[in-house]
Amino acid sequence: MLEVLLTFAVILVVFLVLPLIIGQVEHKTMAHMQSRLGPMYAGGFHGWAQLIADGVKFAQKEDIIPAAADRRIFMIAPGVALVPYLVVMIAIPLDDGLVGVDLDLGLFFVLAVMGVGVLGSIIAGWASANKYSLLGGMRSAAQLMSYELPLVLAASSVAMAAGTLSLPGIVEAWQWWWLPWQAIGAVVFFMAGLAELRRPPFDMPIAESEIIMGPMTEYTGMRFALFMLSEYVGIVVLSFLTTVLFLGGWHGPLLPGWLWTLAKVFLLAFVVIWLRVTFPRLREDQLQKLAWAVLVPLALVQLALTGVVKVVI
């Protein structure tokens, strides 16, 4: 019993600290790539206290609820956006034997619960009594429906290859030659995951230049901070799942397994940040075309290729 509690404690600490670290890294990366000096001043050396300054700023903001809003739904929406990602973490392995719960249907569990997190944005847009917020919520719903299919198809290809739906089982079955074999699925999964997180260039539901801040337009203070935290927790979860499914999880030479997992996660998180800085936002028609005309066919090709290889081998 004590060992189980310690395992849960380690995993909880890792998964709660990582989003904060990635948020800090995003500040610094964007500052360097875009010559933005602001994040370099808070706290002196290299702006080490920028994250603390942001936290203090959010805590000091007034908590405002629009008069026409559905108060109860408005208040719980940030929690609906954040909690599913925290629940998902119990099934993601950090190392061999270091996992909260090894579920036989772990992959189905993770994908199902991740889909719930998007509902936070949808109900926030509806409850805000703001047309811009509602438009952002509807865009979130359309984006979820479009990109859930390629996400699930790409993950199914790995499950077929490993012969199990257990996430630790998939890592144990992984071989180095899966890197080229499952490369198409990896790209599809990662891009579809970015779209579900509404990260640039897939941030049409937010689109500051068009609908202000989408579903979060009316949110202030700590409720807005929870939405921001859910985004960074989502980046952590997406990076971990991509690592577990396509990059071999804890497999790697010389270093401890958990260190290899974290190294791959940070590499993928950097790619997420890099894409935000580099690529412009897609139009809504481009967003849908990419999902249905590109990613879905590629995911089906990967699924068929996996089936052929499994039959031949």
From TrEMBL:
Any one GO CC term of the record: plasma membrane
Highest taxon above the source species: Bacteria
Mode of membrane association: Multi-pass membrane protein
GO biological process, one term: aerobic respiration
UniProt-listed Pfam families: NADHdh
Catalysed reactions listed for this entry: a quinone + NADH + 5 H(+)(in) = a quinol + NAD(+) + 4 H(+)(out)
Oligomeric and partner information: NDH-1 is composed of 14 different subunits. Subunits NuoA, H, J, K, L, M, N constitute the membrane sector of the complex.
Family listed: Belongs to the complex I subunit 1 family.
NCBIfam families, sorted: PRK06076.1-2
Alphabetized PANTHER family for the sequence: NADH DEHYDROGENASE SUBUNIT 1, NADH-UBIQUINONE OXIDOREDUCTASE CHAIN 1
Record protein name field: NADH-quinone oxidoreductase subunit H
Organism: Nonomuraea cavernae
